[in-house]
Design goal:
It is built from 17 helices and 33 strands. Helices cover about 30% and strands about 25% of the residues. The longest helix is centred in the last third of the chain and has 34 residues, at about 600-630. Strand 9 (about 165-170) and strand 10 form a beta hairpin. By secondary structure, the protein is α+β, with helices and mostly antiparallel strands. It folds into six domains: about 10-75, Arc Repressor Mutant, subunit A (Orthogonal Bundle), CATH 1.10.10; about 90-150, OB fold (Dihydrolipoamide Acetyltransferase, E2P) (Beta Barrel); about 155-220, Beta Barrel (OB fold (Dihydrolipoamide Acetyltransferase, E2P)); about 245-490 and about 550-620, no CATH class; about 495-545, no CATH class; about 635-715, Beta Barrel (OB fold (Dihydrolipoamide Acetyltransferase, E2P)), CATH 2.40.50.
């Protein structure tokens, strides 16, 4: 055990104030001494013991109150409590299907429950001001939405239902709790049963429903194009490029001007390959390999030079800023750039000269870097590989360019080992993939895992991203660090982490959270242990929610999940706008340009982060839709499944092999009265004692498919 420090002098006063600040800044949250230590960035045992002593003294002095055994919160009755308890706060609405909501505060303090009668026309995702009611004993914090500061959504997708004098839009999204009233004069050609995009025009104070008008008719529900368009419209993503952007894209010549090639380092005679999914259409990164003296290798990471074609102020640039990212939906890619660029001039196609921005490293086979170079290049890819082809070469040692691929894989393995040694998290979720017919209908579902071929590319992309960020962001003697765009990832919320640790420990898994390294090791072991079990999906989902979300920022706080102090996104400018910003900044700074303004770039980072979140939502919705569509003709069929979650409404079951998740509703279990044992993640029958526990295997029968809502209902087959 660590030796306890004495509480005396200025050290005591500073320490006590720091501990008290944690509680005062979070008046509605409670913490144990470990969580306080984590908030203060303290890891050593002696200081943790000191924090425990201070908390005990503050409790004795009635400045803290015990909320439950071992956990404390600020005592608002204390005469020394200087901070006024908030009567209102600003946050984001998390709307439920029933109409009730939770407001998630900007300061990450306790969520506020809002009854359906007190939402005052606020909708999911809106930024609002909420008035907080005095807390009732034993109840969650409650309040009423007093002001809608900013609407989250401009448009809504759903199905039109018409009558003689009016119509309603039935929204697809379950978080939209009300239908939109559409006057007949505002249908704009929409017919009963069609899927449309509508906007809210007004919402009178006394009206239960908002008034709106149809903005665009998408077509017949169930059509693949219509459904994918619906998902894009749901996230407010542009459905097409402007005529001006398409005109600009078509104006570029096919051939690269010789004068431009002469200004660049020529890699066209050096072995270069691309490795991508079999169905990929744009190839924005390539790897080159050249043998040097002393057993060293020159490894180049070559990235499409989108900045050559997309100039500031152009229509293409404005469209790219608005989109922020490409969206990869099932069977359809919605590119950030017009196809003339994304699938054509900027795509690093086999056998064609292409302009790149490259990060080139002199390395040995242990992964040690001996030199690095960044600059504009021209390349010509020798071979376009699919991941499956490279994986077979790695496993068999045979095939085209097997020697070169073996070297690249060996170096990648060393980079990976070093990353995990330093505390990188190994999140490896299975990807749901579909085989589609010519109309986009799903024929089968399979799961794709990250194998060595995928990881090979990932490791070199991570290397390039890290080294570019270090090159600009690392402070050197007598130099001011210039403004740059980083990909950052914050430390996890201590309370969420503590909750997650207790959750997995009740399922029989141990977690060590005493240090960053031990936490990463614990997570990586956990992911290995749960592989193939019924708890895998739920634990991985909760683990990801426990971690903070990565985002773009000009303020570098490092990347916690990757254990990198400096990290950026440099490797995908075809499909991510922040990478294009990074290319421009890097090139300008290499040519001695002055630092740009953070005030200009930070809002651009925030917008790109928001568009990325929307794209992820769209991709997830498209998977859910295709899973429901795949199950549509399987009503009445039986499947083996795993219990992936439990709630007071029912049991979530995931079909083995396809991950099609549906709910067995408790009201359909007529053999007994079942109730939720929340603490042990199980549903228990009151009379017969039958238990449905998280991770258990069971047989289900498909009962109902709601394609519009992307929901599946199952029945238990005893």
């Amino acid at each position: 055990m660590g030796k306890k420090k004495s509480l005396s002098g200025s050290e005591k006063n500073t320490f006590v104030k720091s501990v008290l600040d944690v509680f005062q800044n979070n008046p509605y949250s409670s913490f144990n001494y470990k969580q306080v230590a984590s908030r203060l960035g303290i890891q050593d045992r002696a200081s943790k013991d000191l924090i425990s002593l201070i908390i005990g003294q503050l409790f004795k002095n009635q400045e803290l109150a015990m909320s439950k055994r071992g956990k404390y919160q600020i005592n608002t009755e204390s005469p020394r409590y200087e901070k006024e308890v908030k009567t209102s706060l600003t946050g984001t609405v998390d709307m439920k299907q029933t109409g009730k909501a939770y407001v998630i505060p900007e300061d990450k303090s306790e969520d506020v429950f809002v009854a359906a009668t007190n939402t005052n026309h606020a909708l999911h995702g809106d930024k609002v001001k909420v008035f907080i009611f005095p807390r009732r004993k034993g109840h969650k914090l409650e309040g009423e939405i007093a002001e809608i500061i900013k609407r989250n959504k401009k448009q809504f997708v759903g199905t039109i239902e018409t009558s003689k004098n009016f119509a309603f839009l039935r929204p697809d999204n379950a978080t939209m709790p009300v239908d939109i009233f559409i006057p007949i004069s505002k249908l704009n050609g929409a017919k009963n049963g069609q899927k449309v995009v509508a906007v809210i025009t007004e919402w009178p104070a006394q009206s239960a429903n908002p008034f709106g008008e149809v903005k665009e008719v998408l077509g017949k529900p169930g059509d693949n194009r219509v459904e994918m368009q619906s998902i894009l419209a749901e996230i407010d993503f542009p459905l097409s490029f402007s005529a001006q952007a398409e005109k600009e894209a078509s104006s570029f010549p096919d051939a690269i001007p010789p004068a431009e090639i002469s200004t660049r380092k020529d890699f066209r005679q050096i072995f270069t390959i691309t490795i991508d999914p079999e169905d990929a259409k744009d190839f924005d990164d390539a790897i080159s390999l050249k043998q040097l003296d002393k057993g060293h290798w020159e490894i180049g990471v070559h990235i499409a030079d989108v900045s050559y074609y997309v100039q500031p102020g152009s229509a293409i640039e404005e469209e790219a800023i608005e989109r922020g990212t490409s969206v990869y939906m099932v069977g359809r890619t919605i590119p950030m750039l017009p196809e003339r660029l994304s699938n054509g001039l900027c795509s690093l196609k086999q056998g064609e000269d292409r302009l790149c921005f490259s990060a080139v490293f002199e390395m040995d086979e242990t992964g040690k870097i001996h030199a690095e170079w960044f600059g504009k290049t021209v390349i010509n890819s020798n071979r376009r590989f699919a991941y499956e082809e490279v994986q077979e070469i790695i496993e068999t040692g045979k095939g085209e360019f097997s020697t070169e691929i073996a070297v690249l894989n060996k170096v990648a393995l060393k980079l990976r080992e070093e990353r995990f040694r330093k505390g990188s998290f190994n999140f490896e979720t299975q990807e749901v993939r579909f085989k589609l017919d010519e109309l986009g209908r799903p024929l089968s579902i399979y799961l794709r895992e990250m194998k060595d071929a995928n990881k090979l590319i990932e490791d070199f992309m991570l290397l390039a991203n890290r080294k570019v960020a270090e090159f600009i962001g690392k402070k050197r003697e007598n130099q001011t660090v210039k403004t740059f765009v980083y990909r950052v990832h914050d430390t996890p919320n201590p309370e969420k982490l503590d909750t997650f640790t207790q959750f997995v420990e009740r399922l029989g898994y141990k977690m060590k959270i005493s240090s960053k390294k031990s936490l990463a090791d614990s997570f990586n072991k956990l992911f290995s242990d749960i592989k193939g079990t019924g708890t895998e999906t739920m634990i991985e989902t909760i683990a990801i929610r426990t971690m903070s979300k990565a985002y773009y920022s000009t303020n570098n706080i490092g990347h916690y999940g990757l254990a990198f102090q400096y990290y950026s996104h440099f490797t995908s400018p075809i499909r991510r706008y922040p990478d294009l910003m990074v290319h421009r900044l890097l090139f300008n700074y290499m040519n001695n340009a002055p630092s740009v303004s953070k005030e200009v770039y930070e809002p651009m980072c925030e917008h790109a982060s928001e568009m990325e979140r929307r794209a992820v939502d769209a991709e997830r919705m498209s998977v859910k839709y295709k899973q429901a569509e795949y199950m549509l003709d399987k009503i009445g069929q039986e499947f083996d499944a795993l219990i992936s979650g439990v709630s007071k409404w029912g049991i979530f079951a995931e079909i083995i092999g396809t991950k099609c998740e549906g709910m067995i509703r408790l009201r359909d279990l007529e053999d007994d009265y079942y109730y939720l044992d929340e603490e042990n993640y199980q549903i228990i029958g009151q009379r017969h004692g039958y238990r449905f526990k998280l991770g258990d295997k069971l047989k289900i029968r498909v009962k109902r498919i709601d394609l519009a809502r992307k929901q599946m209902d199952y029945e238990w087959v005893p």
